[in-house]
Structures are given as C-alpha cells and as structure tokens.
Amino acid sequence: MRGLVLYKCGKTELREVEKPVCGEKDIIIKVESAAICGGDVHFYNGSLDLGSYPIIMGHEFAGTIAEMGPKADSYWKIGDRVVSENTASVCGRCPSCEKGNFVNCASRRTLGCDEDGAFTQFVKIPGELLEVYKNCIFHLPDSIPMKVAPLLEPAANAYMAVVQEGRLLPGENVVVFGAGALGLFSAQIASIAGAANIIMVGMPSDESIRFECGKKLGATHTIVNSESVDIVSKIAEICGASGVALAIDAAGAPSVLKQAIEVVRNDGVIVRIGMNDKPYGYGLNEVNVKSVDIKGHMGYNTTSWRNIIALAASGKLNLESLVTHELPLTEIKKGFELLKDQSAIKVLIDPDR
After folding, report:
1. What are 61-111's pLDDT values in tens digits?
2. Which of 23, 266, 322, 324 is most buried, judged by most C-beta within 10 A?
3. Is the pTM of this model over 0.70?
4. Angle at 139 between CA 136 and CA 142, to 5 degrees
5. Considering Cα of 176, then 266, then 96, then 80, what sign does the dihedral take?
6. How far is CA 254 from CA 176, 187, 272, 288, in A?
7. Is the omega angle on the peptide bond into residue 54 within 30 degrees of 0, that is, cis?
C-alpha cells in the first residue's frame, strides 16, 4: 500500500509502506476517507518538528473495521463503520487519564504525529489502548456519510471549546477569532447552542471563501482584522449592554489574545484553541480587573464526541459545507498547497483513488 510519509522535518513523499500487522488484541481499520488538518500543514511546511521520523501522516479519518485479533474487544466486529479519535496510546494512570481526559495524558501518542497515521489505506488501533480507552474509536451512524466523517474530529474540538469549556448559554454573544476549520466549527456550534450574536473576526484573505462559509454556518457578523478597523468598538456596538460572554481564539497570535481580553465582558470566558509560540508581550492587569477566565484548550473528550456524532446524525451539524476539495491520495500535496494559500477550508483525501 502507499502512504504519505514525513521522512524528515518539512519533507514528505508518497512511498510504498507496510500494511500494519494485527496483534491478538488489535483492530485494523480500512481508511475510507481522511482530511488534512491545519496541524498537518505545519508538519508539511516544517514549521513544526515532530522530532521522530519517518512517519505516515494523517490523524482525521474514518473507515471500516477490516481485521481483528482473536482477543480483540468483542464490542466491535469486522465491517463496522467507525471514526477515530486518533489516539495511539495513553498511560492510563495519570490524573488526566483517571478523569477520562485522555487527550491531556502527558504520555499520549497520536496517530499521524507519533505513530503511523491515516494518509494510507490501513491503520492499526492497538489492543492495549482499547483496553484503557474504550472510546478511542466510535461507531459511525449510517446517516453520516463516510466521506465527511473525518470532519467530526475538528467539530468535536469546537464542541469542547464552545460548550464544555466556554459554558455558552443560549442568548449570549460570542466572538470567534480565526476563520479556519476550528473557527468555522466554533461559529456553527455557537449557533446550534443558541448564541444571539456570533461575530467572526478574520483576515482579508478570509473574506471571499471562509467568511461566506461562516455566514452559512451561523455567523451573524464578520469583521476583517486590520489596523483601520476599531474591532473593540465595533463589537461593542453589535453586542450592546450584554457584551461578549465568550471569545474563541482560534487564531493564536498574541495580538489576538489581547483583543479577546479587550472585547470580552467582565466575568467572561476566553478559550484559546489557536497556538503560537511567540511571547505574549502585553500586560495582563485587565484579566484581573475584569475577572476574565482564560482557558487553554486541547482536543476533546468522550462527551464531545458522543454529542457531536449525535448532532451530525440528526442533521443539525453541517459537515459538508466546510469541504472545498476532494482529492485522491496521489494528489495529496496539491491539497496541502491549497490550504497553504487559503484557497481551501477542508480537503478530503480518498486513499483508494
């Protein structure tokens, strides 16, 4: 089989790779659909160094169970449609694991980042993981098309940020900084949760494609973040006395976090999804004065996944609108280039084409 191999920092190649061997407790998934994540683009560019190579990339995927070891969990059966949460291993013993927050396990390894991932035809889910973390894969209802099922992963991310960490109440106002997939899903989740105003703030390059998608998914206002626009005043004018209860930072730049602190109301919440390793560089007194809650975000938990799957199965969550391109595995590098120049939102990969 073929796979997209990251063989050193910023260097990828389609190569012949070995099909994973199924141990006595393992499950092998036939990858039917995968999606390129923004994090994958950083690995592709070399702006993030995984540190260990070679590795098959890809961590947003869905498929069918193709093979099971003789001692694999009998809850599953060959032919089951499944979507993966992309964990490869956890310790099962740390404080995060004991609370069920396996994504926060300090020893966690991830498919496509630490272990071979899904930009290929078959992926192994280790039996040792399934014993500790039974919900590392989920049944995929027939009502959710296999093709778009990989997008449940970023949607679960957004659900965790907006509902579970952001504690959004119906009727409250939300600002989403960043119009990538996580920003767009955050806007959609805020709409499903009943937000009154959903303000999406992005860059000039977001106007033609991403802002239009955001409006379709529930954003009530869009603002281009530029020096000529007084974002704080504009948002205050839209939200009035109720103010902004929740700000989602899906961009990550220090200047955006500063803006989020400025626009959120007293006792408001900021959830930081986006990442950037530059120093913050601003004072934090306003965080104290306004009693702002800044929450660092990483991933999701079983509640996020269970509920996002239910929303998609019921037709309340729109996955299809974020898909701008569908490519065979042989053209996957084209997908990365489309995401780099922001002419794509989500790119789906068919490993069999």
Report:
1. 999 999 999 999 999 999 999 999 999 999 999 999 999 999 999 999 999
2. 322
3. yes
4. 150
5. negative
6. 15, 21, 11, 18
7. yes
